[in-house]
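re: that chain from earlier
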Amino acid sequence: MYQVSLRLAELPSQGVLEGMLDVLAEHNCRWYLRQWAAYRDPPPSAAMAGVRWHPDAPAIEAVFQDAPLVFARMWASCGPIAAISVGHARALDQLRGVAPTRARDEHRVVLLPQGALDRWRQWHAYHLAGHRLIDPTERMRRV
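^ sequence. v structure.
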């Protein structure tokens, strides 16, 4: 296991969080491609792996896990779950011959505000596939 920590003096903006989730989605994409190249069959989604969704509580930290850690742990917040969905879709596109840059443009993690507008702004992560907004937690069991 490898852990990366980023400490900020203030709450990160929506763009910063989306950027971090995009990096995680790209990491997941490469993981899926390596799994398939080794003739392994990883779960296509967190929901199909039996992962439970654990909504974030208003807090001063965010923890992002990659697909193998989420599948082993069996629960995650919406950010890592959306990054798995986006990573899987990008990997499938690349297998079909879509250029990696186009796959990244076509599949992105986006955050939309949830709840009250206060200093503890809550976001929910979605998979934006072209012009469709997909909530990968929609049919998941909650912790």
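The helical segments are 14-37, 67-73, 78-95, 100-106.
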